[in-house]
Each structure stands twice: as structure tokens, then as C-alpha cells.
Design brief:
By secondary structure, the protein is an alpha/beta fold. About 35% of the residues lie in helices and about 20% in strands.
Length: about 190
């Protein structure tokens, strides 16, 4: 049986922050289903914003013209069967680290034909407000839904919850269980 490979992309500057904790719960659920899990912390990576040169979209393109840490990430995205994207809400949407990553995925088709089709994706988000709408979390969730519908990926599920202080999300036992269960579903064939 082929091992399921899950790539976790953490878009927070806090390695042990609330969105990372949710991603860890998803990972544990996936591991319980015998998945192999790899984690990437975007913060601290050298990832430049897209410069709209369109090199990656030209016929016969060899990829993105920007030589930075996304080159390594592209290969990992293609190799993985499933992705977990975790981000806190910053100023009514996903973090800047996550947004730059999302923008640079524009070049992914230059590295592999139809690289999004069939990818199983889970999203984990945390926010400081008590309300997902008022916090702006809903804006980020909608962006993920629209992007992965457009790319014909399979958005397996999303977990999100309120927590301001690092680690506070652990107090939400139902959310922790939901994240674990999402990981199990993500790893299921």
C-alpha cells in the first residue's frame, strides 16, 4: 500500500501558535491513518512576492523566474498527496506569509501538468476575535474555497477557532477533536 504523504504549510511566525497547534492535531489524525507528514514553516523562508513577469505561464516554461525558497517548496507540493495550510488571521484575512505562498503557487503548473487536480487539502485557522465573520477569518476561508475549487483540488475540510494567546486554542476540546478527525479524513484514500 502506498504511503499517503501530507505536507503541512505553516503560515504563522509562531511555530507553536494556535494555527500551528490546529495543524499538529490534523497531522496526528493523518499519522493515525499511517500517513507520512512533513512540515514547512513559511516564516523565515526567503519567499519573494510574485513579480507578474508571467515567465511561468509561457509555453515551454521551466518554472518561476524567482530563484528563492519556493523552488524547494514547489517540489514538495507536487510530491505530496495532501496539503494542510495553517494560518492565523492577520488584518481580516490570512497572514502575509500564507498569502505570498498562495500567490507563488500560480507558477506550480509550470513544474507539473495539472498539479492541483486531486490534491486533498485541509485548512486550519485561528483568530483573536470571538466571531469568525467579524475577525475576517471568513474572508480567508472563502479565498481558500474559491482557489481550490478553481484548481479542481479537493478541499476536504476546514477547522477554525478563536484564541488570542499562544496555546489557548488547546482549551477548545471540540475543535481539537475536529482537527484530529479532519486529519484522519485527509489521509483516507
Amino acid at each position: 500500500m502506498k504511503t499517503n504523504h501530507v505536507l503541512v504549510i505553516l503560515g504563522s511566525p509562531r511555530k507553536k501558535g494556535n494555527s500551528a497547534i490546529l495543524a499538529q492535531q490534523i497531522s496526528q489524525g493523518a499519522i493515525s491513518e499511517k500517513a507520512e507528514v512533513e512540515t514547512i514553516y513559511l516564516h523565515g523562508k526567503n519567499i519573494a512576492p510574485c513579480k507578474a513577469c508571467m515567465t511561468c505561464q509561457k509555453k515551454g516554461s521551466k518554472g518561476c523566474s524567482i530563484d528563492d525558497d519556493m523552488q524547494e517548496i514547489y517540489a514538495k507540493l507536487i510530491k505530496a498527496d495532501a496539503w494542510v495550510i495553517a494560518s492565523p488571521v492577520y488584518w481580516f484575512t490570512m497572514s502575509a506569509q500564507t498569502k505570498i505562498f498562495m500567490d507563488r503557487c500560480f507558477a506550480l503548473p509550470a513544474y507539473h501538468h495539472d498539479p492541483f487536480r486531486g490534491k486533498r487539502i485541509a485548512v486550519a485557522m485561528s483568530y483573536g476575535d470571538e466571531d469568525a465573520v467579524r475577525s475576517g477569518c471568513i474572508n480567508a476561508l472563502r479565498t481558500f474555497q474559491d482557489a481550490y475549487r478553481f484548481t479542481r483540488s479537493s478541499l476536504v475540510g476546514m477547522v477554525y477557532g478563536s484564541a488570542m494567546d499562544a496555546g489557548e486554542i488547546r482549551l477548545n476540546e471540540k475543535l481539537m477533536q475536529d482537527a484530529y478527525n479532519l486529519g484522519k479524513m485527509l489521509a483516507a484514500k
